[in-house]
Design brief:
Length: 272
């Protein structure tokens, strides 16, 4: 159980900053306007507190615990981090209005969906590396999927409406968002490749069999193939726009079936 004071402090900071950026969206702030100098350090403070809380929750004296609630909170933390890093090159303050409230809510996810069991084999270094890389990979693809949905909304309004809604007008240009999407996808794809490779090494070390053909492995391989095709299409054929969005969401659905689906069924529905 996390300490409640730092948890509520982190949630309050996220919510306050989220309200600030959300208010700027609706008051018609121009996205071309340079952000205030205090904005990036202000986001970094709850980001670091959130990281500390995650470590306290996941790394326990009796081993590593990583449940659905921890996964949701970790995804939210990495989302804020990705957009914070992206803001170092582009003005993404308007996107923070979406992700910071989500991060504030995610802090209670481990309380609602606590991990009751310690993961097996966490004493082995190779498994710890595999788990860390896998968590980063799944989180990045979750971020990519949410980013792609936001792009789809903006593109749909652009082609089917005479004018964008007030909210969508404040988003960065679609080209900027697309470049950020593919940076996230490349990072996620590299990490997913390392996840599969380290998983095979761990399986060989533990079970003397490099590949366990479980549904989780099959859907992870399908997802890897989809993202490989998307990134190859981007390099060789310049895929973009709706094509990139559809492939991104298809790959994410396969990955969702591989990881979150099985974990949710086991922990929440079956209570195992």
């Amino acid at each position: 159980m996390p300490e409640l004071l730092p948890l509520f402090l982190t949630a309050f900071l996220y919510a306050g900053l989220g309200a600030y950026f959300w208010r700027a969206l609706w008051l018609g702030a121009n996205t071309a306007t340079a952000p205030h100098a205090w904005e990036k350090p202000a986001i970094l403070l709850p980001l670091l507190l959130h990281a500390w809380l995650l470590l306290q929750l996941i790394i326990q004296p009796d081993g590593i615990k990583l449940g659905v609630g921890h996964a949701i909170s970790a995804i939210a933390w990495l989302t804020v981090l990705v957009y914070w890093l992206g803001s170092l090159r582009n003005n993404l303050g308007c996107l923070q209005g979406f992700v910071l409230p989500f991060a504030a809510l995610s802090l209670v996810a481990p309380l609602v969906f606590p991990a009751s069991h310690t993961l097996l084999h966490t004493e082995q270094t190779l498994f710890k590396i595999h788990l860390f890389i896998a968590t980063l990979a799944y989180s990045l693809f979750t971020i990519a999927a949410m980013h792609a949905l936001l792009m789809a909304m903006a593109e749909r309004h652009l082609h089917h409406s005479r004018s964008l809604s007030t909210l969508l007008q404040r988003l960065p240009p679609l080209l900027t968002m697309e470049h950020l999407l593919f940076r996230i996808l490349w990072a996620g794809f590299i990490l997913l490749t390392l996840t599969l490779a380290s998983g095979m090494l761990f399986s060989e070390e533990l079970f003397h069999k490099a590949l366990q053909l479980s549904h989780k492995t099959i859907f992870a391989l399908i997802s890897w193939g989809i993202y490989a095709a998307l990134l190859g299409g981007r390099l060789h054929y310049g895929w973009r726009g709706r094509t990139a969005i559809r492939w991104t969401l298809s790959g994410f659905m396969a990955l969702l079936l591989a990881y979150i689906g099985s974990k949710f069924v086991l922990e929440i529905i079956l209570g195992r």
